[in-house]
Amino acid sequence: MAGVVARVSGPVVLAEGLEGAKMFDVVRVGELGLVGEIIRLIGSVATVQVYEDTTGIRPGDPVENTGQALSVELGPGLLKSIYDGVQRPLDVLQANLGDFISRGFVAPALDEKKVWEFDATAKVGSEVSGGAILGTVQETPLIVHKVMVPPGLAGTLSDLKSGSYTVRDRIGSVAVSGRKTPLGLSHKWIVRVPRPVKSKLAPSLPLITGQRVIDTFFPVAKGGTACIPGPFGSGKTVCQQQLAKWSDADVVVYVGCGERGNEMTEVLATFPKLLDPKSGRPLMDRTILIANTSNMPVAAREASVYTGITLAEYYRDMGYDVALMADSTSRWAEAMREISGRLEEMPGEEGYPAYLGRRVAEFYERAGRVVTLSPEDRNGSVTIVGAVSPAGGDTSEPVSQNTLRVARVFWALDASLASRRHFPSINWLQSYSLYAGDLEGYFRTKVAADWVALRQKALELLQKESELQEIVQLVGVDALPEREKAILDVARMIREDYLQQSAYDDIDTYTSINKQYRMLRAILTFGDQEQQAIQRGGTVAQISKLPVRTRLARMKSIPEKDATAAFDALDGESAQALAQIATGGT
Amino acid sequence: MAQAKSGPKSAPEINVPIDYRTIDRVTGPLLFVREVANAAYGEIVEIQLPTGERRQGQVLDSRKGLAIVQVFGPTMGMNVTETSVKFLGRVARLPVSDELLGRVFNGLGEPRDGGPKIVSDQEFEIVGNAMNPYSREEPSEFIQTGLSCIDVMNTLVRGQKLPIFSAAGLPHNQVAAQIVRQAKLRDSSESFAVVFAAMGITSEEANYFLREFEATGALERTVVFLNLSSDPSMERVITPRMALTAAEYLAYERDLHVLVLMTDMTSYCEALREIASAREEVPGRRGYPGYLYTDLATLYERAGKIKGRKGSITQFPILTMPADDVTHPIPDLTGYITEGQMFVSRELQRRGVYPAIDPLPSLSRLMNQGIGKGRTREDHRGVADQLFASYAIGKDQRALSAIVGEESLSDVDRAYLKFADRFEREFLNQRPDEDRTIDESLRIGWLLLSDLPESELKRIKPEFIQQYYKPTTADAPA
């Protein structure tokens, strides 16, 4: 079924004579065999988006149809891997091609030589269906890989043996109405098709990230969706990386979509050195990286997001909580726009294709906490955190707006906070989390009964502060009554001593939820006592000079293990210091 | 690229060029050539005018029977009957050798200085393959530029791409020249090779740079690609690729550390827009093509370092923002690709501050890798953060005091106000020939911080405060 190139214009190639070609079939273009995908069919002419640079391709060059849609290979060996947008391992590319990626090279996604110890758990002779666990492989010291029957396959397990296998070996077979289908450690899945689930669950558990402004004020649920829009330089990438490092997901898939090469290198260099806070093992043991930097071909950038979510769904199906970080979905949308422009499609808003909103919604819909497809009940989740890079930070543009319609948490990054080095620069007045209500139950029972009230109070103080600031701009701070100056004082403490968190400080980079509670309570209690002191006749100027203020400002650097004792002492100290204000002779 | 040759297969080449006299249409910079069987995408063509003059072009779109060719240069004098087009069967290349150093070329890589053509058996394709992110080495070597506002606040490292965002009437050229003159690794006298790509700048600006390079003896380690405003705008699309190819050769084959200065990126993007509109493409924002991001990325991402190779490429693109607007597509997309930016501020310039780089909107994303103990100094991170925060507060107080008067500020607020003024005058401001060491810059930073009460220094670790904080009792408010 070989066709020929009829036209080439950048990443878009028209091919003639591909009989029987189907939409989204993968084709190989030219003598080099560049990988592409059919995205439009008109008569016998197929439009192909090519995942590699098309320089040198000319009309008349051969085009071969593989007859299969763009798929990823799912099996042991995914973790610790670093892929490009179409699941080619970058280390294999380097070994074969050198430091620059030349074209037309196909590499197996999983190491074909590596031998895995497979421990069969399913019983021979039993009825199995898609999602049923056949057995396990210890993929990394942190993650047990559950080998499952591929979705769509059902029948009698006719044979299955424990032993040492590679991903190419046959481990057993399923008899489907008398015909045997071989089983392996791996199977393929089409990236643009969501993996099926039994049902979706309501969000009820938070994804704990160790980032105070997120966990306390704008939490995301396991299986939830969040978006981080922000102009360049506002700390999007650092936020994403902090979540990838510290969130309590079992598996993290990090998609660098149109990212900077040097930043991707930073991820590649730091992740293997970072230790998982729970197990003390390298974080890479539970991480998959997908790096399609901005100078790599644009069509592969479009595919990278789908590659990432499919890998995430696969681990979800095993029963794990997976977090997918996509940085940045704007680059993905721009790839769509670029290809749409080459197809000469009628543009929608700002040149983006009319189907932008649908694609964005479809992608976020693949998140969720689910009951997986399997005979026994198993829960897993995929949480999506998508960065958006709006032009000039103006979120009225189409990608941000389409994302906000579907994502339920909005972390609004603020350039003015970033420029005064308030990090993470998440604006506390504009951001929201629609999960806050869903998660109240968890925080009440697992953290503290007064958690919800404390959070509410802190948010109100910050809101009040912004109102008072407007007055201060007009009349100066001295015109305010002491009571209101005290509100400004405590709001400033919340901003500086609580919300600001350094990603580069060894202790401050991660704050457990219990320490978060103690920190917030310490500040708000101080605020209450400050108000009492002022009622007795104290002044904010007096109170801001108390030595305990410096101690409160340094709460961040209290190590987790000393937290309880240290906070008990601190609470006592600040109560004592404030009690002495405006009593007796002062 | 030489690297491309080492790949398993290389692009097939046809070596029998045919002359086509089948030009159908000439619009703007584009030629539509009919009856072409199989022009390759990106193929270089030679166009012969009725007068015998030859010009170069490149295939932008190829289908059976039609090739659209972008002409590097004016289309003046071309006609549809007598002009012929020869498809050369190869993509654009630059011959490379050590002879490149000290030479001046035009935007297409042809000698402009009257010297001989570069002859070499090594020729690199100018559209480089993408560097494998896995092969990159994390940039971490601190480059001392001698400018406090960069070294302390937004540190530059080898292999970084850090653009200068400027606008008409601001001293970006002076700043760039000073950086090129002073840039060095700490405790090293090893100097950088310089590749200078000028796109659409005036001859005055070009002469300024050439004089600067000459005066400091940098010219013999400099390669210049010059496309002036009077030169054909279409050449500009090729110029930065020529320059970066030369830089890659010097860095990865000849082990040199290369600074690439590209100015003015705005002219480059305008040339792209010119082609896009001639092709009647669907425009993105402000008429720029939808692929502007991808196109810029293929330039900027060629900065970096490779594991196991000695050289490095550090990029300084300069762009002028139309109407000082940072949300304009060019600075906006650039900011999303580069590792930070340096903002030249009109406000600071009006206050008489040189180099007028405003640290607040400026950013170096790779700063953390390059600073700290063993690289600059252990207190660097904290000092930089504290200076940032204090200057931001000081500027707020300045705005506030303009409304409510300085008297109604508190003591602490007044200390910040004073800090902001001194910070601009003593820290940011320096002479164009002043080359400060990092220790000197940090010393000035501490000197200014010592005017603030100790309790305000929340960003610095207590042990460093103890070591470096020396309040001048007379000035410090209680």
Write the layout of secondary structure elements.
The complex is a heterodimer of chains A (586) and B (478).
Chain A: E1 3-9, E2 12-16, E3 25-29, E4 34-42, E5 45-50, E6 62-69, E7 71-74, E8 82-83, H1 90-97, E9 116-120, E10 127-129, E11 133-138, E12 144-148, E13 154-160, E14 163-165, E15 170-176, E16 179-184, E17 187-190, E18 197-201, H2 212-217, E19 225-229, H3 236-246, E20 251-259, H4 261-270, E21 287-293, H5 298-317, E22 321-327, H6 329-342, H7 356-365, E23 368-372, E24 379-388, H8 398-406, E25 409-410, H9 415-419, E26 432-433, H10 436-446, H11 451-475, H12 482-499, H13 513-535, H14 540-544, H15 548-553, H16 563-579
Parallel strand pairs in A: 8-21, 19-24, 19-25, 20-21, 20-22, 22-24
Antiparallel strand pairs in A: 1-2, 1-6, 2-5, 3-4, 3-6, 4-5, 7-17, 9-11, 9-14, 10-13, 11-12, 13-15, 15-16, 18-23, 23-24, 25-26
Chain B: H1 2-5, E1 19-20, E2 23-27, E3 30-34, E4 43-48, E5 54-63, E6 66-72, E7 84-91, E8 93-95, E9 104-106, E10 123-125, E11 142-144, H2 148-151, E12 156-157, E13 164-166, H3 172-182, E14 184-185, E15 193-201, H4 203-215, E16 222-228, H5 239-253, E17 257-263, H6 265-278, H7 292-300, E18 304-305, E19 312-320, H8 329-337, E20 340-344, H9 346-350, E21 357-364, H10 367-370, H11 380-404, H12 411-428, H13 438-449, H14 462-468
Parallel strand pairs in B: 9-16, 13-19, 13-20, 15-16, 15-17, 17-19
Antiparallel strand pairs in B: 1-7, 2-3, 3-6, 4-5, 4-7, 5-6, 8-10, 11-12, 11-14, 18-19, 20-21
